[in-house]
Design brief:
Length: 492
């Protein structure tokens, strides 16, 4: 965290204008319920008058935040959506802070600096020697891609990431298309159209690859295909409109595509028709809440962050869970068919741990996917005849401390800089979580009443891809080997 690259990054960030405070009349101040950069975890102080709130203070910046906590309003990412500057003098639950940091249209990660890597011409895997040769070629394409961007728009803090859709174009999209067409023809054809929704479509490459495949392999199905993109980011929605209009027209797909610039959590249209819903590599960026437990009593506390007048972040915990987090805990407990990880450890050892000398009062936090639960609610309420096809990381290395904890990182001068807290300068850091597919599958079943299948990414590709397309001359296959830590959840 104290690397020269990070120090230079801080200097660059501090050049940006600070945000204005958000004030409310005293009568409207919220009752306690419930990123200054990279706050260090310090000693936890108990609030005397309530014995409800607790906060984490930076060791090198001691400050009593009692007064600020009483005065500052609690705000949500939705309330900040129309503000152009980062907030100060407010409190936010962890999930709201993450949503604001990633998705605010004016300064969020996916709005200002983030760019999806496109390799240009598709890789000809059969002509590549082996895996290391592909890795080197990919690095060269990365450099060439970013050099072109810097030639017209230099950005030392550009955030650049890749997806399997782009790296393995068009083969990955064709893999998904085979699954869609096969399941459509088995259960819905010819009584219903093939309606596909995709959330978080990036450059729109997956959509183009799917439509190309269906048009080229099954004309009758293609005539009944409709593709709808739901995109929360105005910047990406604009990119999709601009980049895809000519391509869609040239390929004959224009009349089959609709791009909806809306958050799925604002969705209010009932879709009665059967449809497939693609959520590929999007769960990882959904907001999570932090929960920690008191050793001994096992009482949970919900985390949030206070942003003071100087822009410093102070993490606090509250004994009173908000309704969303409380509901998650109830649904998870009721739906679980298998034991799930807990920072308290296995039940049989909890008593021994609490009696051990020098035991800390509170556990490390766990990060619970409350936004994902709300996404399942949207599917159940507005898309009752949907079939979900989702994929994401089932585990992640180098995460911050905690259970189901995220990786938090940024890029500065083309170098990846990891950090150890999610409370960081909004819009400059990617915050992405692993998905516990055991827990998620059980919750999805409980909320929607649908049957599911969970499989590894490798197993899914083996069944639905023509894996010869992505095999190198040595027999290595990057499409299989690059995503060992990814899984798929599908409605059956």
């Amino acid at each position: 965290m104290d690397s020269p690259a990070l120090t230079q990054l801080f200097r660059q960030l501090f050049r940006h204008p600070a945000c204005q405070s958000i004030r409310r009349p005293p009568s409207l101040l919220s009752r306690p319920q419930s990123r200054s950069f990279l706050t260090r975890r310090g000693p936890v102080k108990r609030k005397q008058q309530d014995d409800v709130q607790m906060w984490t203070k930076r060791g090198d910046y001691p400050k009593d935040i009692d007064e600020e906590y009483r005065k500052y309003p609690t705000v949500t990412a939705k309330e900040l959506r129309n503000r152009r500057e980062r907030p100060r003098q407010v409190k936010m639950l962890t999930r709201e802070f993450i949503d604001d940091s990633l998705y605010n249209p004016h300064y969020g990660y996916f709005s200002k600096h983030a760019t999806i890597f496109s390799p240009g011409e598709p890789f000809q895997f059969n002509s590549i020697e082996d895996g290391p040769a592909f890795h080197k070629l990919l690095g060269d394409r990365y450099t060439e891609f970013e050099d072109k961007l810097d030639a017209t728009n230099p950005d030392i803090a550009r955030q650049l990431w890749h997806t399997p859709t782009e790296l393995f174009r068009p083969y990955y999209g064709e893999t998904i298309a085979r699954y869609l067409v096969s399941n459509y023809k088995l259960t819905l054809y010819p009584y219903h159209d093939l309606i596909i929704y995709e959330m978080g479509a990036g450059n729109g490459t997956m959509m183009l690859n799917i439509l190309d495949f269906i048009r080229d392999t099954d004309h009758e199905v293609y005539q009944r295909t409709k593709f709808k993109i739901i995109e929360i980011s105005p910047a990406l929605a604009d990119l999709q409109f601009k980049n895809l209009t000519d391509k869609l027209t040239a390929k004959g797909h224009r009349d089959r595509v609709e791009i909806v610039n809306r958050s799925i959590f604002d969705w209010d249209t009932y879709v009665h028709s059967p449809c497939f819903f693609l959520a590929l590599e999007v769960f990882d960026n959904f907001g999570h809440d932090t929960i920690r437990y008191q050793n001994g009593t096992e009482a949970p506390q919900q985390g949030g962050v206070l942003i003071d007048a100087e822009g410093e972040f102070h993490e606090y915990f509250n004994n009173q869970l908000d309704p969303v987090a409380a509901r998650f805990m109830r649904v998870r407990q009721a739906a679980a068919r298998r034991p799930f990880p807990s920072p308290l450890g296995p039940p049989l050892l909890r008593g021994l741990r609490s009696a051990a000398p020098f035991q800390k009062e509170y556990t490390l936090p766990e990060y619970i996917p409350t936004r994902l639960m709300q996404f399942f609610d949207v599917l159940n309420q507005y898309f009752p005849a949907h079939r979900l096809i989702s994929s994401d990381f089932s585990s992640l290395p180098d995460a911050v401390p905690g259970i189901n904890a995220p990786v938090v990182q940024t890029r500065y001068q083309r170098t990846t800089v990891p950090v150890t807290t999610p409370f960081v300068h909004q819009g400059y850091f990617d915050i992405f979580f692993p998905t516990d597919f055991n827990v998620v599958e059980d919750m999805y079943r409980a909320i929607t009443g649908k049957l599911t299948q969970v499989t590894s990414h490798e197993e899914f590709v083996h069944r639905w891809a023509y894996i010869e397309d992505t095999e190198t001359r040595s027999g290595e296959n990057p499409l299989l080997s690059w995503y060992k830590n990814a899984s798929m959840l599908m409605t059956v």
